[in-house]
Specification:
The protein has 277 residues and is mainly α. Helix content is 73%, strand content 0%.
Amino acid sequence: MLIDILAAAGEAAPANQFGFLEAMEQGGVIAWSILTVLVIMSVGSFYILITKLLEQNKIMSQYKAIRTNFWRTNSLSEGATKLDKNSAWRQLVDDGLAAEQQHTKMSDLEAHDWMHGSLARSEATINSKLAGGLSFLATVGATAPFVGLLGTVIGIYRALINIGLAGSASIDKVAGPVGEALIMTAIGLLVAVPAVLAYNWLQSRNKRIAELLSGFSTDLLAYITSKGTVKPEMMTKTSTQQAGKAASAPVTAKTAPATARPATAGVTTTTTTTPKP
């Protein structure tokens, strides 16, 4: 008897019609199309974040080798052999050497401007490559919420249609489309927020790399124009630690003890004599 009652209750239990898949199925082709666009945006954002982060870390790690090994060589050609062939720093050195070979055909002023322009053009090429893909992150961060909002509008529109057809605002007619609308809004925000954070982070790291490239380019120009007599100061690990200790050492001011001097100047002594009777 108890088994029959439980079986009847299980058969009478209504199926769940308000899950995520059920809401997407009620949305039809439009809902699945919007979800597909948001997924593509999210996957593309994380792909750009990972690839650009690896590329930036590689450039920054190569800069450490430049500060320790490159400027210890006797010439730029010899120093170029110590750099990776496809690195950004090797590109700057190669462009500087090419400009140096061509400057003999110009006057001194023109040669300086030519080498400066060649290195600046090389910097711009590297920075442009580093910035590749960031526009996609900015686009995703700006448009993903509105793509999700499109799904929201369509879901609410379908809910209103169901209410009109049913003649009453029953929960079974409204819950599906409204739930789909809320899901689309949430997915749009989940796609947009990481894209904006990744864009700002990668952009700040690119600015730091641009500063390093500009400094290295200036050092190359000074080395070439001075015929190798001007080199940047090489900071080793030991010298860096010593400089840090010197900067953090407390400064003690030596004060000489104050000595009291007798006030003799400007003081007059008077002697009074009394006449004897």
